[in-house]
Amino acid sequence: MLADQWGAIFSDELTLRISQINAVMKQHRSHLDTVYAEIRPDLLAEEQKGAVLARCWICEHEAHVVVAKGPEETACKVCTSRETFLRHTCEACAEDFLAEPVAGSQQCPHCSAAMSHTDIADAYTDEGAMSPHDALIDDASYGCCVECSTLESVGTVADRFFCFSCHTWHETMGHCEWCSSKTTGDVEDTYWNGCEQCEGRAAQG
Ligand SMILES: [Zn+2]
Ligand SMILES: [Zn+2]
Ligand SMILES: [Zn+2]
Ligand SMILES: [Zn+2]
Questions:
Q1: Which end of the chain, N or C, is less surrounded by CB atoms within 10 Å?
Q2: Phi, psi angles (nearest 5°) of residue 177
Q3: Ligand 1 centroid from CA 47, angstroms
């Protein structure tokens, strides 16, 4: 059949192109490996000075130098891709570690102490820093993240909004016009349709 012939030609062409792409990727990867080998002494020197080295999810080298505590966006020293890490000091053992992007509780890798993402958020957010008095005037609750749907996970960090569950930055956070809980989702029409946490006016019949 004609279609089969075309299919065979097309797939040969495609196979060839895929193998060309693979060859380029392989070359690129070996270049990145070389860069990593060259800068590794510098990375280890940074670690000696107190930085935590994090693995890049693009090039897979341990080449992100995380210095600051709290959420910080860094550029990979090998492939320059940007990623946010959350460096935190364990309250139980005072050692630093990188928090996992997960909802709920996680363990300190040094002493196995358990903590929730809101325990970690309290250390770095405007909400966590509020005195009980200010919290009465201002809303000190954490917002719901529209990316990962985790409730009480988004806090204010340096005028931006960071989800301590999935480690995503959000540019806006508003209040649901029906239940007034905080969300990074679109608050337009929330009076009628509600938000992640309520059904809105429409459900009232
Ligand atoms: Zn990288
Ligand atoms: Zn610990
Ligand atoms: Zn999230
Ligand atoms: Zn609501």
A1: C
A2: -75, -10
A3: 17
Counting ligands in written order, which one lies closest to the CA of residue 143? 3
The Cα 62–Cα 108 span in angstroms is 20
Q: Which ligand is nearest to the CA of 203?
A: 4
Q: What is the pTM of this model?
A: 0.83
> How many residues does this entry show for the chain?
205
pLDDT in tens, 122-180: 999 999 999 888 888 888 899 999 999 999 999 999 999 999 999 999 999 999 999 99
pLDDT tens for each residue of 179-192: 999 999 999 999 99
Distance 145 CA to ligand 3 centre (A): 5
